[in-house]
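Form P-L/3: holo structure prediction, ligand pyridoxal-5'-phosphate.
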Amino acid sequence: MPKHGTNRKPGAATRAIHLGYEPSEFRGALTMPMFLTSTYAFETAQQGAGIFAGEEPGYVYGRTKNPTQELLEIRMASLENAEAGLASASGIAAITTTIFTHAKAGDTILVDQVIYGCTFAFFAREITEFGVTTKFVDMTDLNAVEDAMKSEPRMVFFETPSNPNMRMIDIEAISHMARKVGAMVVVDNTFATPIIQRPLELGADLVVHSATKFLGGHGDLLGGIVCGSSELVNPIRGRGLRVLTGATISPFNAFQILRGLKTLKLRVDAHSQSAQLVAENLAKSEKTTSVIYPTLPDYPQKALAKKQMGDQGGAIIAVRFDGGAEAGHRFINALEMIKCAVSLGDAETLVQHPASMTHSIYTPEERATFGIDDDLLRIAVGLEEVEDLNADINNALSQV
Ligand SMILES: Cc1ncc(COP(=O)(O)O)c(C=O)c1O
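OUTPUT (holo model):
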């Protein structure tokens, strides 16, 4: 990228638009074309052997790398301040290929107890079938984490803010503890995005995303990505994608996510601004008993939120109603514009009931133990005019 004669690193929005692409190399096409090809022809047998051996640059076969996918990986790695990135078919594919590649039978993985439901199921019920032990820890309690480190884990996994209840996990403190016992820290940064929070700068080893959410940004695709050092990311491409799962992203989805990245900063800023106003509006209603949003004055982990996320809270709000789950359901059903749907990071504002939807894969006992309460709703604020959102919300609140 041109630096205009200065050493200034271009900002995130600029890199998301320009980094790694020169139109003159692609017949002047302003936008990186989509490469719909499953395999690549070598000029000679010797060149093919050289590319296979990694001694020459080039592409081999679509399961491991495609030029459209590669540009997405370059841009996401840059946004996360990472050396390398690897895109995959979904967020869950990014997580499972990472864990399958780096964990082996006999290893222990420490996992925060409040995470996205399918990720929880993978750690609680699937990876354990392969001889890996999972220990669930309340990672908001650093003493409990320190204690769990005595089991000499191979990896530590958490989301921050956590899905669905917006707890904050201290990336720097936990990465420091993990380094002392040689454990690898993997952070799911889906909720914050690299615009708000960059876990690698705070000491984490790998960052994973559901690109289905803010990175794509329009609710029309599935995708995932993992970013970190080449030493940790390259084996995931070789084992996780090429051999173990084949969960490669399609060139079309990579193309759409590249388009999403061009407006990521604009969208995340707008999501955060609107979410703040929606959270304030919900908090002043007598119908709600608690509104959990990182930049509200009564957010319980304010200092940590400020340290990791700065002044932006992101799009997600957790809210409880006077009258419990029943009141929450009445609120959802009374909304007119806001849709009841899982997912987040879309232009449309979405609301859902985690206990019966995204986190229904936890048993009722697990939800009770881990604090995923029946009366909690998750709102993913979209990009509509905030006055329209609050009008819809206030009308629904009047019916609760
Ligand atoms: C925080 C988080 N991580 C990962 C995932 C899984 O992503 P995907 O649905 O793209 O597989 C989700 C999905 O909702 C999520 O919310």
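COMMENT: DSSP finds 15 helices and twelve strands in the chain.
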